[in-house]
Amino acid sequence: MIQMLRKMFEDSPEKSINVLSGKCSDCGCETIIEITPTSGGLGLQGGALFKCSPDKYIMKCPKCFKAGQHEKIWKERSLHNN
């Protein structure tokens, strides 16, 4: 996925920000993700991208991404407490 995102900047070197828009895979709300190059790689604002197959990606809005992170932490803690 990182190669695909970097290629976006290589194909349009005049752009300092690339924007992806679509629907959140969880709630269906309009999601706009701004991607910027950083000293450590790439920064994403406005949501998250996930690779679900070699050529397919899904996006999540910040609210659903945060909810998913809390659920993952809760499940991990539950496993450790049992």
- The total of beta strands comes to 5
Structural class: alpha+beta
Fraction of residues in helices? 25-40%
| Largest sheet properties | 3 strands, antiparallel
Average pLDDT figure: 83
Integer tally of domains: 1
Strand order of the largest sheet: 1-2-3
Q: What Rg, in angstroms, do the CA atoms define?
A: 15 Å
Low-pLDDT sequence parts: none
Share in β-strands: 35-45%
Tally of helical runs: 2
Distance between the termini: 36 Å
Order of helices and strands: HEEEEEH
Taken from the alpha-carbon principal axes, the silhouette is globular
What's a quick, concise take on this entry?
The protein is an alpha+beta fold. It has helices at residues 2-11, 62-81; strands at residues 18-23, 30-38, 41-45, 48-53, 56-60.
Overview of this structure, please?
With 82 residues, this protein is of the alpha+beta class. It has one domain. 37% of the residues lie in helices and 38% in strands. It contains 2 helices and 5 strands, in the order αβββββα. The protein has helices at residues 2-11, 62-81, and strands at residues 18-23, 30-38, 41-45, 48-53, 56-60. The strands form 2 sheets. Strands 1-2-3 form a 3-stranded antiparallel β-sheet. A two-stranded antiparallel sheet has the order 4-5. It is globular and about 45 Å long.
Keywords:
38% strand, 2 helices, three-stranded antiparallel β-sheet, globular, alpha+beta, two-stranded antiparallel sheet
Architecture blueprint of SSEs:
Blueprint: H1 2-11, E1 18-23, E2 30-38, E3 41-45, E4 48-53, E5 56-60, H2 62-81
Antiparallel strand pairs: 1-2, 2-3, 4-5
